Amino acid sequence: MRKTIKICAISLLMASMYAPVFAQGSDSNNESKIWSLEECLQYGLKNHPKVIMADQDVKIQEAALLSTKASFDPKVNASVNLNNSKDQRKGNVTSFHSNSGQSESVSISKKLYDSGKFSLQKKQSKEALEAAKKDRETTLISMAANIKTMFFKAQQAQRMLQVKLETLDGYEKHLKKVETFVEVGTHAPYDITKAQVNVANARVDLISARSTLKEALVNVGNAIGVDHPIHVAAYELEALPNIDESVKQEYVNIALERPEVKSSEAKLRSAKYRISEARTSLKPTLNSSAGYSWSQTHTPQDRGWSVALGLSWSLYDGRSTKAAVDSAKSNYARTKASLDNLKLNIDAEVENCINDIIDSAQRVKANEVLVKQSSESLELAESRYDTGLGSPLEITDARVDYEKAKGNYITAYFDCLIAQTKLDNTLGRMPKEYSLDKAVELLGDNKELDEVKAIIEPMEAEENGDNR
Prior knowledge:
Layout: H1 2-23, H2 29-32, E1 34-35, H3 37-47, H4 49-70, E2 75-89, E3 95-113, H5 117-184, H6 190-224, E4 231-232, H7 248-255, H8 259-279, E5 285-295, E6 302-312, H9 320-386, H10 392-427, H11 436-443, H12 449-467
Helix pairs in contact: 3-4, 3-5, 4-5, 5-6, 5-8, 5-10, 7-9, 8-9, 9-10, 11-12
């Protein structure tokens, strides 16, 4: 517990020290703001262009469904025609005769029967809309996983920078100590040269670590949809996920229900309806119409009405229907193969995620031991040097080992969190940091509440079960 508090305090201090470096030359509130993971998720899942594109894809399919339904609605037309003509007649006396008049009409038409084509088109549109909604869910889950991954990588780079700072500080303190020892004549002047080289190398490493952090912050900004690097708040270290290979089949079954799979299944059903619709091209269609018209400007007007019932039946279309059916069948086969490939990959994705979590968690435990041992070795090497028994090389080797162990620990820790994030994405889960209330606020539409619950509630129920 004390170690966690210490690391968090160091991270907060480091963030406050280096935030001004990235805020120079910017007056934007967003550029100077310190972003938490929750804020990154909330902003990114509301404003990123990919999310907006997914929302518009849903609206496009909603409009397509409405258009399909409208094809069987009655159509009403009205028209007004005005005319004015003048004739020139020649004889003994040239004369002009004017003719003027007007006509109006109202008509209504409705398709009565189309051999089931309308029903099939409507089913296609509904499945396409369902696929678009599931694709939007997939986009939200994928975007959330990417934001969380970039955030963790920034945290990783931030803590690695702190390690480099501590290393430089240690070398500088050692240099001052060596200068004192050489001055009093207890150590050789070469020790100063060696200590100065170590300080110079540590500064070079620090420059590289700063560059890595800047790049990581740019990637976080890009992930949430802003065009500049952002500053991330220190992430409170949490217990690493505890998982084993026995849960693989359970997770595979969960992953088979994720929105991406449901979208592919909806697209497959739509492709199947398309085959049936293509076959209706040579089937009859029945239409009806009625109209009423009147003309002339004087009374009584010329009036008329009409009622019509029309049957059309294409007997041969030059193999166009066969081509359409073949195309629809090929599209169905391709869509089915794509779904089968997705399901095939899920097994490997889940297994790789589980293996990554287990591997990184084991590396964390191993490096915890190495950090402790290398810390003790460094203290021992410094004590030996202070008493004149050690050498500068021993000090350098001990500090390099300590720095490497701490760096490996940090890398393994955040690799484990990133692997868990990847697993959540594979299972179709929203991050636990993104609550149901925020998801509802994001969509801003109560009719989508059930869809959001379907994504988040299973995850919350599992977490509550784990807490119990």
